[in-house]
Amino acid sequence: MPDAAEVGLIQRCQQGNEDAFRQLVEKYQRRTYWIAYNMLNNYETAREISQEAFIRVYRNIGRFDVKKNFYTWLYQIVVNLCIDRMRKLSHGKTVDLDGVGGLADPHRGPSEAGEKSELRRRVHLALLRLPPKYKAVLTLRDIQGFSCEEISEIVECTNATVRWRLHRARKLFKAIWDGKGVEIGDETDAGESN
Amino acid sequence: MGCDDMKDLLPLVAGGEARDDERQAVKDHVSHCAPCSRELDLFREARANLALLREGEVPAGTWKSIWSNVRADLFPPRISRSLFFFDLGLRYAAVLMVGLAVGVGSYVVTRPARVLPPSGGGAADPATFVSFQGQPAPIQPVTSAPVPLRAEVNQRPKFYAPRVKPDGSCYLPRVEAIPTGGERDY
Lengths: 194, 186
Known about the structure:
The complex is a heterodimer.
Chain A: H1 4-14, H2 18-40, H3 43-60, H4 70-90, H5 115-128, H6 132-143, H7 148-155, H8 159-178
Helix pairs in contact in A: 1-2, 2-3, 2-4, 3-4, 4-7, 6-8, 7-8
Chain B: H1 3-15, H2 20-30, H3 34-51, H4 62-74, H5 81-110
Helix pairs in contact in B: 1-2, 1-3
């Protein structure tokens, strides 16, 4: 359940209060931005997605039920925008990783930018190779720390489906990280319940 | 439970999504299975690596630009009523001026050629007119020298004016003056 202060802010936004909406934007823009960035790995695109998400939120805030969590609705919009953008960029192709070299190369020395930034870069590259649905749950759970219940609200599926996708996403991510050839194939998995 | 069954549970145990009984089963198995224990550690390590991406550095001005762009889209600045009508008037005036310019330009390009008066004096022979049937039409005596036409550039052909007799009648063009070539022997 949302707190009373946030409910008040949302109600003022529903009446067209610009200052109330600015406070909402400032409260959620960081997380919104980083979810978009983790999914798309581009600063400019992440900024555009964040802006578009807030614009859509304001335009539809009149229909929002204040008893529900605002952030799950916001992040749902962000994730859907990111998935749409990824599909536009890739034209629906999934990545066939057979024969792709491993990213966790033990013989690679540290880059000049530092081991941590090199590690982040490699993690990003591995994440980029996942299909959008798996990338979304992995981003929300392992990067942003949402619970399975919150993720199920954001991606609009059951708890069991979220578990299945997390299981599949982590196995794929690990296989990519270890440099094993993996055929991801279709995004629709037999193990999903929805 | 064997290693194959464990392999499906290890990712969920590493992430904390496993049920209590599943977690206990994995814990019991990895206590005596080194490969599965190693596999579980690798899943935990991958999860820790992913957590590095939670936040980082952003380009300068990102947070300000998000709000300013959202604000510009949702709350555009309002202009006063007088400014609105002034702007509207300017737009109509601009359209009118463009239309006038197009109209004047079209007129200048398409207007017919004018006949300009001659630049100097000089007597010129009057022209004679031959009727349609070939009979010389009666003409009025010329009292003053006719004004030869000065054609505009690429407008009119030149005429060769015949000489005038003292009594006012005119000769047809002299034979010598007629260009040669093209005559036939009938």
